[in-house]
């Protein structure tokens, strides 16, 4: 629980990227309209700002964030900080050209830049944790769960704003990835950190239960022509809580290999 700022920073950031990506694709496919895309962009921007604001608490002093940028290109942490800033900047530009200075070309370019920089940001996150001295993190399962959060959290948010087709597909993909890899992940941790792994059972259990319930709820709502917004939003919030729980378990596995 000692890395809670990073828990919120990574989960909310990855989920926001998923929302920007899925909403943009859904609009291009014609499954949502411009109004729904605008709502998605605002929600995604707010979510990533919240994640960034909470994550800044990990730095201690705000000005230290700029010191983290000194290693861009050679330091995974610096790359993550830099790309998070680029993503937030592009997201801000998307919202600006959508709601304040309405320029369709600039809005489109900003939206594309947001999606691309967001994907680069998600890619950069697991690079920080693939550390040889921390055996519990130095595995492909770390990368898998970081990307899975983008699909699970982003998919749930996309469903809530109306992109039900792509949202459910992404949510299902991410959920299946988590479930299918869980046995192998547990087997890996039983060798590298059995005691710490056993302590995370409650966090992982909560994550799995909520994801199963949310999946059943989303499929049920998909069968209806008009799904109520409040239950969809509630399900999306529950999914984010589930991913936060799973990420807490991940950070609790920190242990330097002797």
TrEMBL record:
It comes from the Bacteria. Pfam families: DmsC. The keyword Membrane applies. Keywords: Membrane, Oxidoreductase, Transmembrane, Transmembrane helix. InterPro entries: DmsC. It is an enzyme of class 1 (oxidoreductase). The chain crosses the membrane at residues 6-27, 39-61, 81-100, 112-132, 144-163, 170-189, 201-223, 230-254. GO terms for molecular function: dimethyl sulfoxide reductase activity. GO terms for cellular component: dimethyl sulfoxide reductase complex; plasma membrane. Its EC number is 1.8.99.-. GO terms for biological process: anaerobic electron transport chain. This is DMSO reductase, anchor subunit DmsC. The lineage of its organism: Bacteria, Pseudomonadati, Pseudomonadota, Gammaproteobacteria, Enterobacterales. The gene is dmsC.
């Amino acid at each position: 629980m000692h890395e809670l700022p990073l828990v919120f920073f990574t989960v909310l950031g990855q989920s926001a990227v998923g929302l920007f990506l899925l909403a943009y694709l859904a609009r291009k496919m014609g499954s949502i309209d411009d109004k729904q895309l605008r709502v998605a962009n605002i929600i995604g921007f707010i979510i990533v700002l919240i994640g960034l604001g909470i994550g800044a608490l990990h730095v201690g002093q705000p000005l230290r964030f700029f010191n983290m940028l000194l290693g861009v290109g050679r330091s995974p942490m610096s790359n993550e900080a830099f790309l998070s800033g680029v993503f937030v900047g592009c997201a801000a530009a998307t919202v600006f050209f959508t709601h304040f200075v309405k320029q369709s070309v600039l809005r489109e370019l900003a939206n594309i830049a947001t999606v691309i920089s967001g994907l680069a940001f998600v890619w950069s996150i697991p690079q920080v944790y693939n550390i040889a001295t921390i055996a519990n993190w130095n595995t492909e399962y770390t990368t898998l769960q970081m990307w899975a959060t983008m699909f699970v959290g982003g998919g749930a948010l996309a469903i809530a704003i109306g992109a039900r087709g792509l949202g459910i597909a992404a949510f299902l993909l991410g959920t299946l990835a988590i479930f299918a890899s869980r046995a192998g992940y547990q087997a890996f941790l039983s060798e590298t950190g059995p005691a710490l792994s056993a302590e995370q059972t409650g966090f992982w259990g909560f994550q799995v239960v909520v994801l199963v319930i949310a999946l059943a709820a989303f499929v049920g709502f998909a069968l209806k022509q008009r799904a109520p917004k409040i239950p969809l939003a509630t399900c999306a919030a529950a999914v984010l809580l589930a991913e936060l729980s799973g990420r807490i378990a991940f950070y609790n596995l920190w242990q330097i290999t002797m």
